[in-house]
Design brief:
The complex is a heterodimer of chains A (335) and B (338).
Chain A (H helix, E strand, L loop, with lengths): L1 H31 L3 E6 L6 H19 L4 E5 L8 H14 L3 E4 L8 H9 L4 E4 L11 E4 L2 H15 L4 E7 L5 H17 L3 E9 L4 H15 L5 E4 L2 H13 L7 E5 L3 H8 L5 E4 L2 H16 L7 E3 L3 E3 L7 H7 L6
Parallel strand pairs in A: 1-2, 1-3, 3-4, 4-5, 5-11, 6-7, 6-8, 8-9, 9-10
Antiparallel strand pairs in A: 10-12
Chain B lengths: L1 H40 L9 H26 L7 H17 L4 H26 L3 H19 L14 H6 L13 H19 L1 H11 L1 H6 L4 H27 L11 H10 L11 H20 L4 H27 L1
Helix pairs in contact in B: 1-8, 1-12, 2-7, 2-8, 2-10, 2-11, 2-12, 3-4, 3-5, 3-10, 4-5, 4-10, 7-8, 8-10, 11-12, 12-13
The chains are: A alpha/beta (335), B mainly alpha (338).
Amino acid sequence: MQRGAALFLALAMLVLVVGCGSATSDSKTGEAKNGFHIAVIPKGTTHVFWKSVHAGALKAAEEFKAAGTPVEIQWKGALLENDREGQINVVADFVAQGVDGIVIAPLDSTALVPSIRDAKDAGIPTVIFDSGLADESVIESYVATDNYNGGALAAREIGKRLGGKGDVILLRYNVGSESTEQREQGFLDTIKKEFPEIVMLSDDQYSGTTAISAQNKALELLNQFGDKVDGFFAVCEPDTVGVLSALEQEGLAGKVVFVGFDPSPHLIEAMREKKVHGLVLQDPVAMGYLGVKAVVERLQGKTVEKRISTGEALATPESVDSPKMQKLLNPEQAN
Amino acid sequence: MGETAAKLGLARRGGDFLRNVLGPFLALVVVVSIFWIADSMQADGGRFATLRNAQNILVQSATVGVAALGMTLIIISGGIDLSAGTAMALSATSLAWFLREQYSPAVSVAAGIAVGCLCGCANGMLISLLRIVPFIVTLGTMTIYLGLAKIVGDNTMVRPLPDQVPLWMKQLLSPRVEYEWMVFAPGVWLLLVMALVTAAVLRYTVFGRYVFAVGSNEATARLCGINVPLVRIAVYTISGFFVGVAGLYQFTRLTVGDPTSGTGKELPIIAAVVIGGGSLSGGRGSILGTLTGALIMQVISSGCTSLRLPNPIQEIIIGCIIIAAVTIDQFRQRRQAV
């Protein structure tokens, strides 16, 4: 009897929760009946970056609604962060459920290809954002920062501050990371083309994936080249944080022209102290917004660009408090 | 001498069949029905109870299901294995490494599974020889295996070239079946075969009775002449085999070796056994129950997606189901004590 009671209680709870959930979603689906049901799948759900993407996606949905096409956004990532298998499951669930379109930031450039191909075979168009996919034949569009241009922006800032000559170090991120390789290439090409008098002291070292490993690698480089170093470019957030600590440790912070990629409160503070001379900023809100827009326009039968750039900007100690930079440094977030 | 304990276990098992197997199965039917009804009430619903979704759910629960077969043995024997997730990732990463280094698929698969067996064997040896409780030992090996996997993967993904991954691996757990007569993916059928064999071993062999005996009452089992450390090492090694196969399953879905892909996966594996009627105090559990438990979790997960329930709600529901299952288990035990 008791066992029956416990079972009953558990199932009653389930009915209650499921009931509540479907009741609220019913009103939503009622709206979307003549419109589109779009699944948006981030890489993780807790980092603020993704909340800004979510805000952008909702903004696009609202604009479509105002224009007479109701769009329902279903925001769902894997339960665990960085769980490739979990993300594959989420895509498979959405395909089985029959959503109209998928917008996804793939956790892996190859692992996600089969499930996105399944979606395509089932007639569901997919737009990817933030990170690339090894096989682009399965997607409609790729919405991302133009990382090559981001690297070029950094090169121009360092070149300008050094007056066109000096010795510069590029600390790469990790082997096989597509987005950072683009940044590195953009940086090197621009230095070579626009600042022929700048010498690259080192451009073949990798920081590894954590701030600690980046700091160690940067210390090695600073020990090797010492006072010769005039400029430094770090290609992503952990890389930038690590290099900054290394510069501080060697007493070179503020003396070496240092440009990084992606902000964090700590880095912005360092920029106000003029220890960081530039940070390349991405626009997560635009990623969500343009991603949803692309997939809905594709569903409406319009042609969409295979590659959509979300734009990138460079914050400097002088411009960091301007309204434009503040908007990129503190992007809106969905609840 | 072992016969006495075995007879005791056998007498109990017959009576337990209804409770152990039908209980979880009934719960699965109820959970499926709830989501089915709720889904068909949605404006654009009606896709939950389709063959496509059934194929999908079975494929998704297969990896946890395989690893949970071994976990069932461990839990019946009164142990626990917190390292199952990271050992699975270590197997998968090793498998990927062998493929990338130009070894044949057969050798790579064998190596991956062997790594799983070694992980399990190491767990069993440490528990038996050091006489430390399984919880602590496997808590330690959990991070050891994670570290080893990162070394194998050189701190990043192991990516065999696409043509180094044979076609049968890609099809093993593809939700869309290559041959229609198979209905479900080959990996699902393989899981079923392994489950049947394991269930038969548990039920009809002396070894199976020893496993129950050790889990029910270790002291009695020892007095009856059962070599408890040996049984334990065997149980963990067999479980390691299943963890290795789970690594293969995971690899075929990812086609890359991800050293961190097992982090946190031990929990659904343990939960499958517990929801399926396995008792963490040992001596009780069933293979069919475990498979049902793995399915219940995946049905809830897929069902929540089709009902547009956000992740936090899904996590809460799964938590409630686990607590409910253990509550039921406790009532059962109390009743038996009387």
